[in-house]
Amino acid sequence: MRLSFFAVLLLWVSSATAQQKLISLNDIWRDGSFAVRSVPGFNALPDGEHYTELDEDNGLHLIIIRSLRDGSIFGTLYSGKLAVQEYEINKAQNKLLLLTDGEHIYRRSVLYRTYVYDAKTGKQFLLDSEKVLHATFSPDGTQVAFVKDNNLFIQDLSTGKRTQVTRDGKRNFIINGNCDWVYEEEFEFTRAFEWSPDSKYIAYYRFDESKVPEYTLIKYDSIYPTPYKYKYPVAGEPNSEVHIFSYELSTGHTQQMNLLESGETTDMYVPRIKWTQDPDQLCIYKMNRRQNEWTLVLADRSTGQCVPIFRESNKSYIEINDNLQFLPDGHSFLFNSEQDGWNHLYIYNWKSKRMTALTPGAFDIDEIAGVDARAGYVYYTAATPTPMQRQLFVVDFKGKHTRSLSQAEGTHTITGIAGNKYFLDRFSSLNTPPVYRLIDAQGNLVRTLEDNAPLKKKMAEYKLGKMEFVQVEGAYGVKLNAWRILPPDFDPNKKYPVLMYQYSGPGSQEVADRFPVRDYFWHQMLAQKGYIILCADGTGTGFRGEAFRKKTYLQLGKYESDDQIAVARYLGSLPYVDKSRIGIWGWSFGGFMSSTCILKGADVFKMAVAVAPVTNWRFYDNIYTERYMRRPDENEAGYDNNAPEKMASLLKGKFLLIHGTGDDNVHFSNSVALVDHLILAGKQFSTFYYPNRTHGISGGNTRLHLYQMMTDFILKNL
């Protein structure tokens, strides 16, 4: 088809106009213009050939079964008016747990109004008249366990009989089957019970919080504010006393596991429990209070007797994850360790005491994507060929043959599927929105489930700045990985202000070849207004080996802030940077860092924004803080020499401090302490509090308000 000159001109003008659109805060926080699509409710079924997903049609909420191979609809498990947020399917695929009306307690614990739905009859009933925690089918699908009022219950679906396993649950005193606050936050799990593989037993945690100090948050919800009290152990304070029990369904017998070895006390952690391939044996992870020694014990579910099978120690600390998997031979397990200075996979045989290294090399593995025990292969992702990427690999159990299954540069986040015939690959790169692809065990594309084409089209309408990876000078002779966004009309002959963003917490990574990086569209909006945006991962961040990550041990904030200050100085030396206009911002640990940098780097930074910052590690919880700092009485200088509240007199630049008064994680008292020291030092600054908002400072219009405030502050002061 031929177009006239005027038609071509019109198309060119329309295209040029579309390219000139500018991002607004309403685009980001009100209208959802840049929403990233995913695959809602994706849940692969045990047959390895089908999956389920959430959908809606004419006001009905659906759970549909589709073929993994071609996406064709195989059936519908649920069609109804319940607004399902989460769901679980039993083994026979004839009953579902439908979780609705979620109500967060803390970060990971959510109370749900929970229904049991019969997929054959279409009938449903409430599991309990009140919202409950952690409703979970037994492996055989005939029972449901859940937690209510700090007690563990089991519901028999065939008889309707309900069994109350524990009766001593009491708020702020005893918790059964659910984690206390600090375990949930720092060991990253909240359901504290596990069904045995044969469905005959259930193992569960009992937390005795009676000796843990109580913290009071104030809810400004009436004329007389309401106190909210919960147990929060700051650095150096007592923890919950933790015990593990097994409950036998047929007899009602409860057996405590005998965790303590000679010389041990209850002042330790139990960060995981996991059933082995043998249904009579429960594996229990033990960790000392300092978190530099880790022991695995096998517990007999009937007698409670425990036998240690593996120990590991580290000169600084060990972090727990969910990579450990027991193998069918009954005396081996797959796990990851930093014993050679990098995070790698190993198989350990506790009978022969033989350790087999599977993934040697100068890189860190990330996650296990699947284990084919029959064929003897492990699928995993690793931060290679650069620390910013994640690629999928497969290796045999002997560690002799490794193959790459994903060659596209970027980040591959892999969801394993039973049978390892297929994998769900969420692929993105620095400038490429996520594409959800189904791949086979050779890494070949089977089909694309979601390509985010609407987002790509939307982004093409806007005038975006160039985003790229760079390396910048740190404080200790190491090149730091960084990303930057240049203004869309960048001219190297002009000088620009710079806003630095960072997080910098131990093992974190903000500079990764993935989309989107933190606050991508807000940072692009600021670039459109003439700012260079840069984020550098400094000393202590992850996926560059143990030595780089653990250098900050006992001195959180020192090396990290030294690096950010050095990066700012380096940027100030560039011909296109106005060194008198360099600012920094961050949230949480990043807020701790931006506070530290505006004080330590008073001659470098003109401005800083700190959101929900820690201002002295004495105020923060003991599991996280002591892992990196030990107890305050063991490391007083480490705590005080790097605390922003102790540096308040150094402030010169413009400083905005923001916090939610309902923050159960980094308490508002952190900011109160810093404000008090700034006042005593005679320093002027800006501050804002968000009533009753938690650490995420969200809800309703809150995020729009927050980012409008930060934008206005940056435009005025940088």
Question: Overview of this structure, please?
Answer:
- The chain has 718 residues and is of the alpha+beta class.
- 16% of the residues lie in helices and 36% in strands.
- The protein contains 12 helices and 44 strands.
- An 8-stranded mixed β-sheet has the order 37-38-40-39-41-42-43-44, with helices on both faces.
- Strand 10 and strand 11 form a beta hairpin.
- Helix 7 (558-572) packs across helix 8.
Q: What are the salient characteristics of this protein?
A:
718 residues; alpha+beta; eight-stranded mixed beta sheet; five-stranded antiparallel beta sheet; 12 helices; 44 strands; globular; disordered N terminus
Q: Layout of SSEs?
A:
Elements: H1 5-19, H2 25-29, E1 43-44, E2 50-57, E3 60-67, E4 73-80, E5 86-89, E6 95-104, E7 110-118, E8 124-126, E9 133-137, E10 143-148, E11 151-156, E12 162-164, E13 174-176, H3 181-186, E14 193-195, E15 201-208, E16 214-219, E17 226-231, E18 241-248, E19 254-256, E20 268-269, E21 273-275, E22 281-288, E23 293-300, E24 306-313, E25 325-326, E26 332-337, E27 344-349, E28 354-357, E29 365-372, E30 377-382, E31 391-396, E32 402-404, E33 411-416, E34 422-429, E35 432-440, E36 445-450, H4 453-460, E37 467-473, E38 479-485, E39 496-501, H5 520-528, E40 532-536, H6 546-550, H7 558-572, E41 577-587, H8 589-600, E42 607-611, H9 622-629, H10 636-640, E43 654-660, H11 669-680, E44 686-690, H12 702-717
Parallel strand pairs: 39-40, 39-41, 41-42, 42-43, 43-44
Antiparallel strand pairs: 1-2, 2-3, 3-4, 5-6, 6-7, 7-8, 9-10, 10-11, 11-12, 13-15, 14-15, 15-18, 16-17, 18-19, 20-22, 21-22, 22-23, 23-24, 25-26, 26-27, 27-28, 29-30, 30-31, 31-32, 33-34, 34-35, 35-36, 37-38, 38-40
